[in-house]
Amino acid sequence: MKNINEQLAELKGLTKTTTNPDLAKALGVSPKTIYTWKERDKIPEKIFLKAQQMSSLGEALPPTGYMKLDFYEQAVSAGYGELVISEEKSSDIIFSESFINNELGVNPKHIFLMPVKGDSMYPTLKNGSLVMVNRVEQYSGDGIYVFRFDGQLMVKRLQFSKNGLSVVSDNSNYEKWELSKEEITSNDFEIIGEVVWSGQRM
């Protein structure tokens, strides 16, 4: 039977990690848990099963100082909107932790990436732009938001108005429209999050 250090080495090989903190992060446990394993000289069998599954799926930790962000293939419309069929996570994109925490100042657990479809937010957002969305449950001030209204998922600039919210397109070819207070509180309207970053081809 392998001793505890040999077992930890096996887990690190399966998860493609080299240190105990990285191993804990990969397995979704606290560093103290690994210390407890060493104290008890035993690692639960389910941990090895999880590590083996991760290895078979090709999962690995990003380099130190970087993190994975969820990416959703479902495009948000920057035109007149499109019916949302699914929003299933498709892959991951890696970003610098320093950039997320210090430059953007958002919680990494609350952000994800989505592509933009359409030209109504041009020149701020081009067709095909990638937007980083910070999940919020409600309007928190004027800005660009991803929201769902009447079955459509859209990205627009939302501004406070006396009647509710003004929905503004940065492209002057698109007219501004209003969301009433009644519409905002209805089941047809839901704020998904606020756009905090975008990337696009020049």
TrEMBL record:
GO cellular component, one term: membrane
GO MF, any single term: DNA binding
Sequence ranges assigned to domain Peptidase S24/S26A/S26B/S26C in this UniProt record: 72-196
InterPro entries: Lambda_DNA-bd_dom_sf, LexA-like, LexA/Signal_pep-like_sf, Pept_S26A_signal_pept_1_Ser-AS, Peptidase_S24_S26A/B/C, Phage_CI_N
PROSITE patterns: SPASE_I_1
GO terms of biological process kind: negative regulation of DNA-templated transcription; proteolysis
Entry keyword annotation includes Hydrolase: yes
Keyword tags: DNA-binding, Hydrolase, Protease, Transcription, Transcription regulation
Stored Pfam families: Peptidase_S24, Phage_CI_repr
Domain (Bacteriophage CI repressor N-terminal): residue spans on this chain: 14-48
Entry keyword annotation includes Protease: yes
SUPFAM superfamilies per the UniProt record, alphabetical: LexA/Signal peptidase
UniProt protein name: HTH-type transcriptional regulator PrtR
Organism for this UniProt entry: Vibrio ruber (strain DSM 16370 / JCM 11486 / BCRC 17186 / CECT 7878 / LMG 23124 / VR1)
Classification lineage: Bacteria, Pseudomonadati, Pseudomonadota, Gammaproteobacteria, Vibrionales
Gene designation per UniProt: prtR
